[in-house]
Design brief:
alpha/beta, three-stranded parallel β-sheet, 10 strands, about 35% helix, about 240 residues
Amino acid sequence: MNTWLPRRAFFPQPGIPDHEILEPGEIIRIGKDGLETLVKGRTDNRICSFLWIYTGYPASSYEGISVELVRERCGRFLAKNDHVEADLVAGVPDSGVGHAIGYAMQSGIPYRRPLVKYTPGYGRSYTPPTQEIRDLVATMKLVPVRAVIEGNRIVLCEDSIVRGTQLKNYTVKKLRESGASEVHVRPACPPLMFPCKYLLSTRSADELAARRAIRALEGRDIENVDEYLDDGSEKHQKDG
């Protein structure tokens, strides 16, 4: 029996010969006589930056660049451009933790854990196929630690804001209900304007929090969002 491999990219690693690497876009068939190339791969990699920001495992490296170190650097840059006064820095588990550690390293504000996962391997709230399941996961997965939260001003680092399900409806709400005096959200990723055709988690622009914010600012849906993509524009600052 032959096994078909979908299009995917494995990136060069030290000690692995080039001929053992599956290139971007390459399709091979594995049969009893070995490997057969059906479609040759491209030589250029088109890697998704979201791997470093959110979806990649912290111990992974892509194109020789560590996921965890990228997240720390993102947090450092967030702190460099920030002047908020706070008592502690926290990250939304799990991927927000690396960003928060970097923010704390740069700012000197102590890193603490006001939010912990219900179980270490609990799922991501943005990936389920329906909003009802996403809401359920978002409700259950994070547990607030009142002793750490109560009376404190918190910088909350997040990897990104996709729909805002977890952050707006549950995370900030739990911090407030546990007595946080201030919550300052700092996402590492710029506003997400377009759905990803390679994932099932976002299917349309309408469901993205950034597009809903633009709709609120403009009073209507607009097709051309170029001004909001320009990080030097006034509209980008309002949307961010």
